[in-house]
């Protein structure tokens, strides 16, 4: 069964950092372009960061210089390191295959607040 499980979210103060994890099962992450997405309250889901099997990365403009996507193929996990967090980063964060998307996981809540 293909499955994605996000974790690592929580409450953090502005300027803080979190590392999110996306654990995949049922398929090899190494064969897919993977992305992190987020959905903030009242907003559409948006793409945050992308990583290819060859470790080429891409980020939304507002995340450049603050977020880093990486992957551990041996553990079948994709990570999102988030630094210098801002209140507007508050959202539920999800991962998925960029193409050939599967069902969404539960996501992990990130709340940036004083």
Helix content: under 10%
Low-confidence stretches: none
pLDDT averaged over residues? 97
- Going by helix content, strand content and strand pairing, the class is mainly beta
DSSP helical segment count: 0
**Shape type:** globular
**N-to-C series of helices and strands:** EEEEEEEEEE
Separation of termini? Answer: 40 Å
Rg, alpha carbons? 13 Å
Number of strands: 10
**Strand arrangement, largest sheet?**
2-10-9-4-5-6
Largest sheet: 6 strands, mixed
SSE map:
Elements lengths: L2 E5 L2 E3 L5 E8 L8 E6 L6 E6 L5 E3 L7 E6 L4 E6 L8 E7 L10 E5 L2
Parallel strand pairs: 2-10
Antiparallel strand pairs: 1-3, 3-8, 4-5, 4-9, 5-6, 7-8, 9-10
Q: What brief labels describe this structure?
A:
mainly beta; six-stranded mixed beta sheet; 114 residues; four-stranded antiparallel beta sheet; single chain
Could you please describe the fold and organization of this structure?
With 114 residues, the chain is an all-beta fold. It is built from no helices and ten strands. It has strands at residues 3-7, 10-12, 18-25, 34-39, 46-51, 57-59, 67-72, 77-82, 91-97, 108-112. The chain starts with a strand and ends with a strand. The mean pLDDT is 97.
